[in-house]
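For the sake of transparency, this paper describes our internal protein records without simplification. The record that follows is passed on verbatim for readers who wish to inspect the format:
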Amino acid sequence: MTKAVHITMGIIFLAALGLSGCGVKGSLQRPADAPKAAAADVDGKKPHRSFVLDGLI
C-alpha cells in the first residue's frame, strides 16, 4: 500500500472515531435539593427527536 492510502485510511479512522462520540444526551438525575415544583416538569419524558447518525449507535 502506498503512503497516500495509509493517510486516507487514517483520516477515515479518525473521522469514524470522532463521530462515534456523537449521540443523544439523556436526562440527568435531579439534585436532592431541587424544588419539588420542578419535579412535575421532568416526570414527563420528551419525545425522541431522530438524528442522522442514530443508525450508527
About this structure: Residues 3-19 form the longest helix (17 residues). DSSP finds two helices and no strands in the chain. The chain has a mean pLDDT of 74. The two ends are 31 Å apart (CA to CA).
